[in-house]
Amino acid sequence: MHSDDTDPAHHDENVYDALATADDDGRWAFGTGFDAGTAEIDAPVPEGVDRADLAAYCLMLADDALIAAQRLAGWTAKAPELEEDVALANIALDLLGQARVLLSRAGHLGAAEPFRAGPQDDEDVLTYFRDDRGFRNVTLVETDLGDFGRTIAWILVLSSWRLALMQRLTGSRDPVLAAVAGKAVKELAYHRDYAAQWTLRLGDGTELSHARMQAGLDDVWPFVEELFLPHDVERRLAEAGVAVDPAELRGEVDGVLEQVLPLATLTRPERAAVGLVGGRGGRDGVHTESLGTVLAVMQSLARAHPEATW
Amino acid sequence: MVTADLLDARTVVEGVVDPEMPMLTLADLGVVRGVETAGDGTVVVTITPTYSGCPALEEMRADLRRKLHAAGHDRVDVRTTFSPPWSTDWISDAGRRKLAEAGVAPPAHLGPRAVGPVPLTLVAPSRAVACPLCGAPDTEETSRFGPTACTALRRCRSCAEPFEHVKEI
Questions:
Q1: Class of domain B4-80
Q2: Contacts of A167 in chain B (CB under 8 A)
Q3: Residue B156: beta bridge partners?
Q4: Under a CB-based contact definition with an 8 Å cutoff, are residues A103 and A127 in contact?
Q5: B84 closest CB neighbour out of A90, A182, A187
Q6: Top enzyme class of this protein (chain A) (predicted)?
Q7: Which of A12, A96, A171, B64 could disulfide-pair with A69, CB 3.0 to 4.6 Å?
């Protein structure tokens, strides 16, 4: 025990004491290295719901947030202004927090077992030791963020869609999904406002900012359609009162864009959808080569040194 | 039955400070959801994160374990719960005072959230946030996202000083 704990003269509230007295039993070097210990994780699977379906759905929503967070983290220390650097990192952090609980739930339901090679927690196994075909994220989140205009268009679409989804998911029969959604709604409302306000500023700004904002929106547009295509797992779980059928979200997302784009003097793009191969997309593990780039950055060090601790 | 031991554990828990806003105890912040003793004597503490990705959470857990061990509670289990989601409305009146005294503008009371789709906010809300340094009411938001997940950055138009604001959630 550290002497500060017993000496009344040092019994102040210095949080740094914790650093000096932390158990140094060696955290795994790359991931969280600790169990989030969330009370809801081991809640029973709701009656009439297939365990594998629920695990797959948790992975879908986790992977959307995890890959989006990894993409956004690429802006850290590179954003146009310090405030935007902080904002983008904060948005990434919120999404990462949502992903962690969902990954733990998916792991609790068995999703991590095929990938386990060491003592890591479920969320770390799923993050670092899964290949691209095992990821269930929509294509949009793996695409390159491009310039700041494209990044804003990407956040506007993603957060409008995820907010509409999470708001409905607060009524899920699965207590973990409902709990994650309850927090996510508050966070995503900030993300969407941030993107909408920047869309106005850039779209209705200078000739150059308008052109780049419109180009960013055009680039993102082909990936929007996939957001509203229900996967069989989503259909079955929506039927059971656990998931949300994404087709239901189109009206609300359109409503947000109809509110923002005209004010920003931007034109709603007319571009053919991409992202599906033979009707299969990110939800089936069919990804673009962009995901390989994201995973290389995110996973390669951990895979090269899977036993490393600090 | 509430034992003296449990009262003691509760006092210890409520006195632990937030690692990012150390002017507040966890009780001020409103994140302590339960302190109970299990059958085998384990002190079970339940806390709730302010934001899903709050990086302070693990430090809070470590600090709770450390302080409870130091107070003689050998078996400690710190759990987190997401539901119901934390709201800045749970920050105590004492906490709000301490924030203001430390130069951080406390959050406004939100009250119950409306059911249904969340409305889009295209202009910063006109809710007045007084400057915690000079007291002037005329302040502006410079960034919705600040150095911690809980805070936004503002500037006083009167004394020109920048300050943090615990944004409503």
A1: alpha beta
A2: 116-118
A3: B139
A4: yes
A5: A182
A6: oxidoreductase
A7: A96
A101: nearest CB among B17, B54, B82: B82
The domain limits of chain B are 4-80, 125-169
Are residues A38 and A104 in contact, defined by beta-carbon separation less than 8 angstroms? Answer: yes
More confident residue, B60 or B4: B60
- pLDDT tens by residue, A3-59: 444 444 444 455 555 555 555 556 777 876 555 567 688 889 999 999 999 999 999
pLDDT tens figures, B98-133: 999 999 999 988 888 777 788 888 876 666 899 999
pLDDT tens-place string over residues A118-146: 888 899 999 999 999 999 999 999 999 99
Which residues does A66 contact at the CB level (< 8 Å), separation at least 6? A95, A96, A99, A103, A127, A137
Instruction: Please give the mean pLDDT across all residues of chain B.
Output: 88
CATH class label, A48-304: mainly alpha
CB contact under 8 A, B51 and A101: no
Q: Does B81 touch chain A (CB under 8 A)?
A: yes
User: Do B149 and A21 make contact, defined as CB atoms within 8 angstroms?
Assistant: no
Among residues 48-67 of chain B, which lie with CB inside 8 Å of chain A? 49, 51-55, 57-59, 61-63, 66
Cα–Cα dist A190/A157, whole Å: 14
Q: Where are the domains of chain A?
A: 48-304
d(CA A159, CA B118): 12
Which residues lie closer than 8 Å to B163 by C-beta, 6 or more apart?
A: B103, B104, B105, B131, B132, B133, B139, B153, B154, B155, B156
Q: In chain B, positions 125-154, which contact chain A (CB-CB < 8 Å)?
A: 142-147, 149, 153
What pLDDT sits at residue B54?
82
Collect all residues of chain A within an 8 Å Cβ-Cβ radius of residue B140.
none
Is the CB of residue A3 less than 8 Å away from at least one CB of chain B? Answer: no
Chain B nearest C-alpha distance from A249 (Å): 11
Integer Cα distance of A4 and A15 in angstroms: 12
Q: What number is the average pLDDT over the span A87-108?
A: 94
